[in-house]
Amino acid sequence: MLFERLQKPSPRILLIGLVIPWLSAPVLAETDSAKASKKSEVLIAELAEDESVEDVEHSAPLQTKGKNNTARQPAVPQGGAGIDTPSAGSRKVAPNIDLKQVAPPPEAQVSAPGDTDADAAESEVMATEAVAEPEPEPEPEPEPEIREGEVFTLLDNDVLPGTSTRLAWTPGIQIAGLSQTTPVLVVNGINAGPTLCLTGAVHGDELNGIEIIRQTMYDLNPEKLSGTVVGVPIVNLPGFQQGSRYLPDRRDLNRHFPGSPDGSLADRIAHSLFENVIRKCDMLVDIHTGSLKRTNLPQLRADMNNPDVAEFTRGFDRMAVVHSSGSAGMLRTAAVEAGIRTVTLEAGESHRIQQHQIGAGVNSLTSLMERQGMISRMFVWGDPEPVYYDSDWIRADHGGILFSEIELGASVSEGEILGYVSDPITNAQHPIRSTTDGRVIGMAVDQVVMAGFAAYHIGTEAEVPGE
Ligand SMILES: [Zn+2]
What is the whole-number distance in angstroms between the Cα of residue 21 and the centre of ligand 1? Predict the structure, then answer.
């Protein structure tokens, strides 16, 4: 055998009986895998997918019963704009900033060394700067009358309805005088509605999401928005600055949510973000990319065993949807357990800015906001709306140099050659064949691989549980 199929094919049924065009949205159900359970923790770290290969393989198959449902479904959602953070003592009104304006340079943020209340001080500095910097704007607090929308309180700031602003979050784990704040963008609509949160670069080397959030949020008009959109474009700022997926302590932040105030560095950062920002959300889209030189077709990873989450995925236009019940410590998993409808959006590969992938992400988030009644645009939905997939990873069975014959998104047939692993010394050519009919929803870029490397992620259309 030149390749190894890791998972038993699960029954797949055509959900939408159409030939899927390129960017249609299927849901891939990750089936369980007995073999995968033998993999060690080390291997998970090495593979380092957001939703790693193992996470996908560990996921429960799509079953209507959904054994985890009870645990994951708090009766009362804990998210929502009305909840104040414990520290909501000295709040201030956030300045109204046109997010399309060029932001002030961040130098002044360092101007409060020795200040014990670093959070507040930095937020304040940032806020005052933001008002002062774009000097030509003679808008001294437009004082918008509070209509239907409500004041949205975040990070000790009151964001008035019909305004947008930049806030600053700091997990408080650095040397106070040197600490950097992480920008948090808020657009609070003039009308009432749900709170949608967007997080990017939880893995610091995953860049597409940063741009997806920028394009999505800067295009929102708070005067026409119903509800609130909160964006944290770069959650893992230290990792981002070093081009690293990990935190400075080499931990994967996306295995530490919801975190803890007295745990490891990763625990503390996760806890701070979760308590101060994430709990404010009704809905969360955590944006990632493939890792370790793998690229992903724009797709959602969602726990389709959770009816609320499954329903949530319907709002995303032209997205493949892959079932993944998620691993402990993931932001997605923790947020769902806190009653927040959450999916992971995967787009492209790490270390790169990919316009096509970014465009797909922005399009899909726009469709989501329309579906949720937050914006009203003449949105044209793609032909099949989300398409749901079951999925299998196909691994290289030999070490060597991988050369792919197919492209991301291609439809493939069982037995079709996906690529070759070429042994540079013996000149042996080992073909890797598809084990099933389906669509290439993720794949490794050409590179040196070892035997066992997960090279192709093949999705086959599946039905949503309970339908
Ligand atoms: Zn990631």
Answer: 26
Report the mean per-residue pLDDT for the chain. 77
Q: Is the pLDDT of residue 115 over 80?
A: no
Parallel/antiparallel/unpaired status of strands 454-461 and 387-396 = antiparallel
* 431 phi and psi angles, rounded to 5 deg: -75, 150
Q: Where are the domains of the chain?
A: 92-371
Q: How far is the CA of 201 from the centre of ligand 1 (A)?
A: 7
Cα-to-centroid distance, 94 and ligand 1 (Å): 31
Q: Residue 78 class from Cβ within 10 Å (0-12 exposed, 13-18 middle, 19+ buried)?
A: middle
User: How many whole angstroms separate alpha carbon 75 and alpha carbon 167?
Assistant: 31
Q: What angle, rounded to 10 degrees, do the helices at 208-218 and 355-371 form?
A: 50
H or E segment to which residue 412 belongs: strand 411-412
Q: Which of 181, 236, 233, 202 is nearest to 335 (CA)?
A: 202
SS3 at position 26: coil
Please tell me the total number of residues recorded for the chain in this structure: 467
| Structure tokens belonging to residue 189 | 């609509």
CA 23 / ligand 1 centre spacing (Å): 21
Given phi > 0 = left and psi -120 to 50 = alpha, else beta, which region is 177? alpha
The CATH number for 92-371, chosen from 3.30.479.10, 3.40.50.920, 2.40.30.70, 3.40.630.10, is 3.40.630.10
Ligand 1 centroid, distance to 270 Cα (angstroms)? 15
Say yes or no to pLDDT of 317 above 60.
yes
For residue 44, the one-letter residue type is I
302 within 8 A of 312, measured Cβ to Cβ: yes
Q: Quick one: CA torsion of 405, 410, 415, 417, rounded to 10 degrees? A: 0
Residue 331 in this model has a pLDDT that exceeds 80: yes
